[in-house]
Amino acid sequence: MEHLEGQELKDRVDLIEIMIAEGRSTTGRWGWSFVLWGIAYFVAFAWSYFGRSNAAWPVTMIVAGVLTGVLAARRRRNRPHTAIGRAIGSIWMAMGISLFLVIFSLAYSGRLDNHSSLAIVGMALGMVNLASSIILKWKMQFACALVWLGVAEVACFGSVDECLIAFLAGTFFCQIVFGIYAMVSEARGNGQRRAIHA
């Protein structure tokens, strides 16, 4: 009886580890979206800063959102859906929609400034990366969460220049570098899985 309980416990732990690996793999397949949004943040920032345009952020975010939806639909066709993948995707989608609505409403009402917008963005991206990293037990994504939460803190206490530097650094490391890292990790994992099954 004790042997059966021990085996059942081992099977459950193995299942949890498989689900975590599948979740990381799913995140790796979405690495391109981290890079896309990182580039979108840089484009919107440059457009608004150098072009002095109020339309830069809403237009760029809408274009990035539509592009993400189109690319995701094309990539999703032949991919199996996992419970962890759906959960993580739901967290990110909820954050994206909430962030867009709040930032758009604050901008439209004239109540948005650099400090509050970067604090909100840093907090939202920190929270979603933190939740994902806890679910996936992924230290690299946890580091991204800490960086984004640091960006939020700099936005609360730093000068405008310090806020912008923190945001641009966070975007580079936590969107573009992490996105590339996730894609490379997924590609390596696929190669290892193919070698095992060969």
Overall description:
This protein is 89% helix and 0% strand. With 198 residues, it is an all-alpha fold. It has a domain at 2-33 and 85-187. The radius of gyration is 19 Å and the shape is elongated.
Quickly list its features:
single chain, 198 residues, mainly alpha, 89% helix, 0% strand, elongated
Count the beta strands: 0
Question: Which strand-content bin applies to the residues?
Answer: under 5%
Mean pLDDT: 84
| Distance between the ends | 38 Å
Order of helices and strands: HHHHHHH
Structural class: mainly alpha
Shape: elongated
- Percent helix: over 70%
What Rg is obtained from the alpha carbons, in whole angstroms? 19 Å
Largest sheet data: none
Count of alpha and pi helical runs:
7
What's the multimeric state? Answer: single chain
Low-pLDDT runs of 5+ residues are none
